[in-house]
């Protein structure tokens, strides 16, 4: 049986960041990816936003890792010439009963260490974005956008420069860390039956991470969370939008509402909405060929939500763009769950870490998540 040093399962932005961090720590790293290329799952189907860290409960992993991750990510992108931009964003109240929520968000942001916010009245908001309709807004200057594919290319280049290896078309199906079968090794099995072993194994399999955790044998069986998935649709605008900043409504259950984001070419995208999808019996996403399709009939509902803050959106202007799926570890009616990192303290297996429920702000947090994983493995 081949014995490896460190294996990361999943080559999305988080898996590549973890692989890079382990390589920087002197480990020999393989990153195994089930698909034929890196970054084809959650990482390629997001809003590509660098979040400030304002929405999450103070003290939560999402709050801590988003705030630190945002700072690390801006520095990394500048150092590695990864295309990005600090656009800033406005969270807008379009109804009188939403104005108080802006203050609640601002207070939570301050508790998280985000101290560059300002509450604006309607005139101040329109002075920044003349096409905007709102009764008040929260200005978040530290929000930005990033080319997620270029970011992953940079992380992969760092990994390979340090001697790491990306291996595609390699789905890890089962892990056995419960019996000491080969020294200190964790034994894992690929879907084709190949069995290998590693001293360190990190499960960063994204949509499939919880299903793999359920197929992992460890000395202790920690309680694993509920599995649910939230599909989000995106629509695009095939003409310039009159905004320089990202525009976000008040958050909704399961997400941040249908917001306006910009790509680095200045094109506007709208989304995501939230469509809850039941998990497969093993806790993974359903095997549904329409999982990433966008129904053009959703455009009317999108237009209605966007017109709450941009009344002059031309009718029929939105076009289907793409869809993404977020791995939730809380039920639809429950409060949003925090990131869940299960390490040796929880399951008793030295060298093993599961990363579960890594949705937004996972992109922003990727470098800080990687730091935390290395700490857990020490």
Automatic annotation (TrEMBL):
InterPro entries in the cross-refs: FAD-dep_OxRdtase, FAD/NAD-bd_sf
Name used for this protein in its record: L-2-hydroxyglutarate oxidase LhgO
Cofactor: FAD
Alphabetically ordered keywords of this record: FAD, Flavoprotein, Oxidoreductase
GO MF annotation terms: (S)-2-hydroxyglutarate dehydrogenase activity
Family the UniProt entry places it in: Belongs to the L2HGDH family.
Organism encoding this protein: Tibeticola sediminis
Pfam families in the cross-refs: DAO (PF01266)
All residue ranges annotated as the FAD dependent oxidoreductase domain in the record: 5-376
